[in-house]
Design goal:
With 187 residues, the protein is an alpha+beta fold. It has one domain: Pnp Oxidase, Chain A, CATH 2.30.110. The protein contains six helices and eight strands, in the order E-H-E-E-E-E-H-E-H-H-E-H-H-E. The radius of gyration is 21 Å and the shape is elongated.
Length: 187
């Protein structure tokens, strides 16, 4: 990671994963071409779970090359570090113009990137557990219908796990005074 001053710890990365609505899984296909797709992913301890159809491009890729990277994006926003009057003053002094680049034309963000290996789940109990976790995250108000749905659909669904081998996390965030909060500073 080039910007070590924005690096966050593993616990922060796990929080980003848990609150992210999706993860983008990246892989190399059979033609040595990059291939990435967004997926609904849930984490349980050190395992990421997702499901898919039983056939298709990614299923074929996973069989040939199980190595993947998954990127998660947490909260993002455009900071309002200066009022219009303050910005009008900044542009009067060219030596302060760098503030426009670093503190105005920028984005606050949180991200986590995981490296791991794909594993097709074979054990029915583990598949059901994974699917239940996915459904609890994405459709929590529909869980009364889970048992019927899983009975009808489990045999027509691939369920995968990715054991987290490496995780990196990064953040850019400003405090209430417009100062960037560097590594280790939470508030």
């Amino acid at each position: 990671m080039r910007r070590k001053d924005r690096e966050m710890n593993i616990e922060f990365g796990l929080e980003v994963i848990d609150k992210s609505r999706y993860g983008v899984i990246s892989m190399i296909d059979e033609d040595n071409e990059p291939y990435g797709i967004p997926l609904s992913i849930v984490r349980d301890e050190n395992i990421l779970y997702f499901h898919s159809a039983m056939d298709g491009r990614k299923v074929k890729v996973f069989k040939k090359n199980p190595n993947v990277s998954v990127a998660f994006i947490g909260e993002t926003k455009i900071p309002e570090n200066y009022t219009k009057d303050e910005l009008d003053e900044i542009v009067k002094d060219e030596s302060k113009a760098v503030l426009l680049i670093s503190s105005v034309f920028t984005t606050e963000y949180e991200s986590a990137v995981v490296k791991g290996k794909i594993k097709l789940l074979e054990d029915e109990e583990e598949k059901i557990k994974a699917m239940k976790l996915i459904c609890e995250k994405y459709t929590p108000t529909k869980m009364d219908y889970f048992n019927i749905a899983i009975k009808a659909g489990l045999k027509r669904t691939n369920v995968y796990g990715i054991e987290i081998e490496e995780i990196t996390a990064k953040r850019k965030k400003y405090d209430i005074h417009g100062e960037e909060m560097k590594w280790g500073r939470m508030e």
